[in-house]
Amino acid sequence: MVNSLNGKFRMINNARRALKVRKEQGVWEMDLHIQELIDNSFDMVKHEIVQIQLDHFDK
H helices of the chain, where? Predict the structure, then answer.
């Protein structure tokens, strides 16, 4: 996630911290879920990503 601070952009590499920042900015839960998948899916195979989606929406 890119966060603006004093007109400069910086990457937030920590997924949990990025989620906290997004929640503080009032981002919708669906947007958070999609961004979380993007942040964490680089090392995952497709069936793992699908399982995370199923687990999330099965709540």
Answer: 15-24, 29-40, 46-57
Instruction: Enumerate residues 6+ apart whose C-beta is below 8 A from 36.
Output: 15, 19
Please state, rounded to an integer, the average pLDDT across all residues of the chain: 68
For the full predicted model, state whether its pTM sits above 0.90. Answer: no
CA distance linking residue 41 with residue 17, whole number of Å: 17
Residue 42 CA to chain centroid, in angstroms?
12
Q: Is 8 helix (H, G, I), strand (E, B) or coil?
A: strand
Q: Tokens 């990457």 appear where? A: 11
**For the chain, what are the domain ranges?**
2-57
